Amino acid sequence: MKKLILSAVAALTLSASAHAFIPQTETFVNREVAVVRVWNTSFRPIVCSGYAFGRTWNGVVLNAWANQVLVYPSASVDIYVHSNFYDPMVQAWAQIDCGWF
């Protein structure tokens, strides 16, 4: 009986603290920068980590790392990937995971 209670408590505790999700994102691209905007649509602060990618006209893939970025409720955070003027950005995407703060 002790093992059953202990395993139930451990399962409930670990599942609550190990929760991660993919947030709502938007991408914007202009000649010199690709922007990935991460939105927090919940009522609690979230912490996000991951990569934002941008592809240039010549096919070069550039990236930017965001580590443990705090996003408050109903707010957003921008992640920028820069290129130079002579090789313009044409595409942007992201791989970002978030969790409750």
Structure summarized in a few sentences:
With about 100 residues, the protein is an alpha+beta fold. It is about 15% helix and about 55% strand.
Poorly predicted runs:
none
Strand content is: over 45%
The helicity comes to 10-25%
Distance between the termini: 34 Å
Give the averaged pLDDT, no decimals: 88
* Shape label: elongated
Count of strand segments: 6
Strand line-up of the largest beta sheet: 1-2-5
Q: SSE string, helix = H, strand = E? A: HEEEEEE
Keywords: Signal
Signal peptide: 1-20
Descriptive overview:
The protein contains one helix and six strands, in the order H-E-E-E-E-E-E. It has a three-stranded antiparallel β-sheet, with no helix packed on it. It has a three-stranded antiparallel β-sheet with strand order 4-3-6, with no helix packed on it. It is 16% helix and 53% strand. With 101 residues, it is of the alpha+beta class. The protein has one helix at 2-17, and strands spanning 24-29, 33-39, 46-56, 61-71, 76-82, 89-100.
Provide key terms for this protein.
101 residues; alpha+beta; three-stranded antiparallel β-sheet; 6 strands; elongated; signal
